[in-house]
Amino acid sequence: MSGDDPRRVELAERLAAVEQRVARACEDAGRDRSQVTLVVVTKFFPAADVRLLAGLGVRDVGESRVQEALAKAQEDALAPWPAPAGERLTTHFIGQVQTNKAAAVVGWADLIHSVDRPKLVRALDRAAQAAGTVQGVLLQVDLEDGADAGRGGVRPADLPALAELTAGSEGLDLAGLMAVAPRGADPDAAFARLAELAAEVRASYPGAVVVSAGMSGDLEDAVRHGATHLRVGSAILGARPGVR
Ligand SMILES: *Cc1c(COP(=O)(O)O)cnc(C)c1O
């Protein structure tokens, strides 16, 4: 173990702090830590960081831009290095997907968190079938209900129809729901609403068990409301360079 690489030390400390937050949130919620997957969002950070994180035991990584995800994959950041043979990182695509990038995202992602419209469902279904795979997808719900169209997501009223279309797509596996808490709103209320919607979807599609919610600032609220996947970036990697 090379404990002297300062970036590695920094990532290890931040990861440990987040792990502690997750563990405490699980304890407070009466949930087992194993029910919650920590997805480390590495967008805007280099492949070298992904490798360091893998070395620190991270097994789930998230990216939000197709070109960047593919570039890192080419740099072997997602190869089974330095994990034991047979283990590799699980890849989560969490950003908005253009339909013309459907095949690329299917080729990269184990789970796509951000499916929010029929046209995209059809494009991903075609891409998955062409690739001979069944692609796991989450439906991203717009908890602002259209108030801020910029962040994507299906309006709650349109969720049942989108779930039906997805569940009926041979190339897709409807694995659950994802949401981002609305800016400036109470994440507790937002994730309570998401939990209700997730329960409604599960009533019709029992396999749709994933609830992807919670980021650096609100992961405790998400755990309290049943999140199975947290998407944490800046609390582990630091402030993102440049954009945002
Ligand atoms: C960037 C991003 C995250 C991570 O956000 P942090 O606040 O840095 O933890 C989570 N989810 C989505 C959809 C993102 O785009």
Describe this structure in words.
The two termini are 34 Å apart. The model has no long low-confidence stretch (mean pLDDT 92). The chain has a single domain (6-236), classed as TIM Barrel (Alpha-Beta Barrel). Helices cover 41% and strands 16% of the residues. With 244 residues, it is an alpha/beta fold. Strand 4, helix 5 (118-131) and strand 5 (135-141) form a beta-alpha-beta unit. Pyridoxal-5'-phosphate binds next to strand 8 and helix 9.
Structure, briefly:
With 244 residues, this protein is α/β, with parallel strands linked by helices. The chain has 9 helices and 8 strands.
Structural topology:
Elements: H1 6-29, E1 37-41, H2 47-55, E2 60-63, H3 66-74, E3 90-93, H4 102-108, E4 111-115, H5 118-131, E5 135-141, H6 159-167, E6 172-179, H7 187-204, E7 210-212, H8 219-224, E8 229-232, H9 234-237
Parallel strand pairs: 1-2, 1-8, 2-3, 3-4, 4-5, 5-6, 6-7
Helix pairs in contact: 4-5
